[in-house]
């Protein structure tokens, strides 16, 4: 069940747009911010508030890859998996993360620290390869930087 505070925040987002549905992503983000991910129950609750069916909202949530429909680690690593990064050394970064975190895409480390996801272009192609952890964007990456970057996230 959504909290009163969550409902209040969602209603505020709805007040800013012409139709309740138009606030659906912001509503999901509010819930995800509090709970880490969007469970089926949360999805149903949000759908009711934004006047959508759960299936309709789920298709939006699934399309939008920053909405997590499964539990994730404390930190989500989004590794850019698009053309400029492919050209500029993406594979080396990906393989290093796979090996050193002991996970593949879509998985979470055993200690719950990191989830690793591929992501379409992070919008910084001129500084490829790139990845994001939470709100932090790392550009011009080299494998040598990864240990230090990862150590910032406990
Ligand atoms: S292709 Fe990686 S940031 Fe654009």
TrEMBL record:
It is an enzyme of class 1 (oxidoreductase). Binds 1 [2Fe-2S] cluster. SUPFAM superfamilies: Thioredoxin-like (SSF52833). The keyword Cell cycle does not apply. Its cofactor is [2Fe-2S] cluster. InterPro entries: NuoE-like, NuoE_dom, NuoE_N, Thioredoxin-like_sf. The keyword Oxidoreductase applies. Keywords: 2Fe-2S, Iron, Iron-sulfur, Metal-binding, Oxidoreductase. Its EC number is 1.6.5.11. GO terms for molecular function: 2 iron, 2 sulfur cluster binding; metal ion binding; NADH dehydrogenase activity. It comes from the Bacteria. [2Fe-2S] cluster binds at residues 80, 85, 121, 125. Belongs to the complex I 24 kDa subunit family. This is NADH-quinone oxidoreductase subunit NuoE. It comes from Hymenobacter jejuensis. The gene is nuoE.
């Amino acid at each position: 069940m959504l909290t009163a505070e969550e409902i209040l925040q969602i209603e505020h987002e709805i007040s800013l747009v012409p139709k309740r549905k138009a606030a659906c992503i912001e509503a999901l983000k509010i819930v995800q911010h509090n709970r880490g991910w969007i469970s089926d129950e949360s999805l149903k609750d949000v759908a009711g508030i934004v006047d959508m069916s759960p299936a309709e909202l789920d298709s939006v949530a699934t399309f939008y890859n920053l909405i997590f429909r499964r539990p994730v680690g404390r930190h989500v690593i989004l590794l850019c998996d698009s053309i400029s990064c492919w050209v500029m050394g993406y594979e080396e970064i990906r393989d290093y993360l796979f090996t050193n975190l002991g996970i593949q895409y879509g998985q979470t480390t055993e200690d719950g620290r990191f989830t690793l996801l591929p992501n379409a272009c992070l919008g910084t192609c001129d500084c490829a390869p790139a990845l994001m952890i939470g709100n932090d964007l790392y550009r011009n990456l080299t494998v040598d930087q990864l240990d230090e970057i990862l150590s910032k996230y406990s």
